[in-house]
UniProtKB/TrEMBL annotation:
Pfam families documented for this protein: NMO
Origin superkingdom: Bacteria
UniProt cross-references to Gene3D superfamilies, sorted A to Z: Aldolase class I
Organism encoding this protein: Desulfurivibrio alkaliphilus (strain DSM 19089 / UNIQEM U267 / AHT2)
UniProt keywords, alphabetically: Dioxygenase, Flavoprotein, FMN, Oxidoreductase
Full protein name: 2-nitropropane dioxygenase NPD
GO molecular function: dioxygenase activity; nitronate monooxygenase activity
UniProt keyword ATP-binding present: no
Amino acid sequence: MKLPPLKIGPYTAPVPLIQGGMSIRVSTSALAVPVARCGGIGTIGGSGLPVEELQADIRKAKSETDGVIAVNIMFAMQNFYNLVMGSIEAGVDMIITGAGFSRDIFKIGKDTNTPIVSIVSSPAFARLAEKLGAAAIIVEAKEAGGHLGTDQALRDLFPEIRKVVKKVPLIAAGGITNGFEMAEMMDKYGADGVQIATRFVLTEECSADDNFKQAMLKAQPEDVTLIRSPVGLPGRALKTPFVQRLAAAEEMKAKKCRWKCLKKCDHFYCISERLQKAYEGDLEEGLFFSGENVWKMKEILTVQEVFDQFVSQAESVYKEQK
C-alpha cells in the first residue's frame, strides 16, 4: 500500500522520510536538494558553520528545488540564536533542533511562521515540546549516530512517547536501515514518518570524503562505540584511533578553546575540529559519528536509489492505519 505523505506545518513531503542533518558539512545542499527532489525532507546540518556560509547554502538549496528544505541546529551551539535567525532570513522551510531544549525557539517559530521540529528522547520533553508549539517531534533513540539523549532502544522508547504526543506528527529516528523497518515503525508503532541519517552518508551525493564512506562500509558491529563529547552528551561514533585514545585516557589535556562554538564545553578536545577532520577523511584524527547499525549497509547508492529502495520495501508490507 502507498505510504502516506508527511505534513509538517504548511509543508507536505510526499514521502514520509526526513534526511537527518549531519555536521560539520556532511549534509549540505548537495545532499539535501536531491532528498527534497525525491519527495523527502532534505536537511542541512547547520551546527558549527559560520552564519554566512549556512545562509548561502540554504539559498542555494532553495534555488534548486521546490521540495522541503530544513536545517538542523544544536541548541548547545554558542551562536544558536544567530544560526536560527540567519536560516529563517535565508528562507529555510523549517528548523530542526536537539542536543538541549530551547523554549524560546517556539516563540521565534510562531513570530516568523517557521515550523519548529524538536528532537527529543523522553516523554517529558516530548509533552513539553508539543505544549510549547512544536510542529512535529522526532523521537531519537540510542541507535542513532551523533549525540544521544537516551540509552533506550527505539522500539522501547517510541511507544512511551507515542502515548503522550497527540496533536503533531511523531517521527521515529535511530538505527533504521531499510524500508521494511520504516514500515514497521509506521505500522506497528504508529510513527508518522522516519528520520534517517547514516544511510545518506553512504550516497554519491554526500560531500563527505570517500575515506569517511569507506570507513562506514568496512565497519562491523564492534567498530561502533560510545564516546564522551564536550557537548555534555554521549555520542555514537566509529572506533577510530582518536576515539581509542580518547577511551584510554581518563582525561585528555585541556586546551584553550580557539573556536568557542559551544555554550558550555568541557574543553578536553574540540568537537568542531574533530568533526571537520572526519568530513575531510582523516581516519587517524577525525570523529566519525555513525548510527549503531551502520554495519548493515554494504554499498554506496545514489539518493534516488535509496528512496526507490526504501519506498518499494516499505510499500510492499505497509498497511494503512485504521
